[in-house]
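Hey, I was hoping to borrow your eyes for a little while. I've been staring at a protein lately and its backbone has me curious. You're getting the sequence in one-letter code plus the fold written as tokens. Would you mind checking whether the tokens look sensible for this chain? Here's the protein in full, and shout if anything looks odd to you:
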Amino acid sequence: MLVTLSGFILNYVVTPASVHDIKVIYELLEGCKQSVILGDLGYLSSELKKDLEQQGYHLWTPFRQNMAGAEEHNNWKVMTMRRTIETRFSELCRLFDIEHTLARSLAGLQLRIEEIILAHNLRYFEMN
């Protein structure tokens, strides 16, 4: 899911759990005008970072705790911003029960997810 720092959901991609995050990042970033991207550990890849830099993006991912320089790199201010997306996932589950859509088809699932994201984003505008 691609979310602004203020919490507006820009884009999402649904994949089976077996698909690695790196395989769908280009689809997720399609049409994205943000140049700085904060990712989670699923996007930790020097090759991916270099490739995205060539496309005009700056990808920041936290280091694993056992990596050299992790304490300095994993700045608490940036980690706080990173938490924004986790909060959106929690809200989608808590407020809209996105994990239990009761969809009977792939098209029904996609429609339900888009309805939930629309409702979330409308709620976002109401609050801001």
The chain has a mean pLDDT of 87. The beta strands are 2-3, 9-11, 36-38, 58-60. The first strand starts at residue 2 and ends at 3. The domain at 2-127 is CATH 3.30.420 (Nucleotidyltransferase; domain 5).
